[in-house]
Write a structure and sequence with these properties.
mainly alpha; Tetracycline Repressor, domain 2; 10 helices; elongated; DNA-binding; TetR family transcriptional regulator; DNA binding
Length: 198
């Protein structure tokens, strides 16, 4: 039952917002009593914490699945972007923006948890792109990782609308890729941009 509550609550929080969804809403959606929810979670904050952990694990599982495939570095980034777009397409407001606004302590926990993992993914992708001749050899990898990470998280924590955040993230991905790309990489980028917007 605990896992079912976390799953349903995560779905509702991502779709309608952490602030607006109440324990009554979750109980109503699941046709259970609020008392049942409180049996597992002493308050809404504890439930949100469990939900962010579950979403974090699911995102990482999907990203690991994508990076394990034999995509080139640029296509890999676009496949990850597509996954995020699909996963959060029903959200009205950016989940990170909501967390920062209404649950700042939890937001900082989530961000500190993500920093190392995201930076490792970005670094791995840049190294892969250099080896494939899609990114320039002379890149200072650590600096580019920090640039991209800072850009993405700034977008998510300062953009209220999920649709706007998704559009800006796509522009950030294009910006990041163009800054690193070789001539061959630019061709691959243009192809992926065309396929992504179809």
């Amino acid at each position: 039952m605990k896992e079912k509550i976390v799953s349903k609550a995560s779905e509702l929080f991502l779709k309608l917002g952490f602030k607006s969804i109440t324990m009554d809403d979750i109980a109503g959606e699941m046709c259970i009593s609020k008392k049942t929810i409180y049996k597992y979670f002493c308050n809404k904050e504890v439930l949100i914490e469990e939900c962010t952990t579950m979403v974090h694990q699911e995102l990482h599982r999907i990203v690991d699945t994508i990076t394990a495939k034999d995509h080139n570095a640029i296509k890999e980034n676009f496949e990850i972007k597509r996954m995020f777009k699909e996963m959060f397409s029903s959200s009205d407001t950016s989940p990170l923006y909501q967390l920062k606004k209404y649950y700042p302590a939890m937001y900082h926990t989530v961000i500190s948890r993500e920093i190392d993992v995201c930076q490792a993914w970005f670094k791995q992708n840049i190294q892969k792109g250099i080896e494939q001749g899609l990114y320039r050899q002379d890149i200072d990898i650590n600096t580019y990782v920090i640039f991209y990470y800072t850009l993405l998280f700034s977008i998510n924590e300062n953009t209220g609308s999920e649709k706007d955040a998704q559009n800006k993230e796509l522009q950030a991905l294009e910006y990041h890729t163009r800054a690193m790309a070789t001539a061959e990489g630019i061709i691959e980028l243009e192809k992926n941009l065309l396929n992504f917007t179809r």
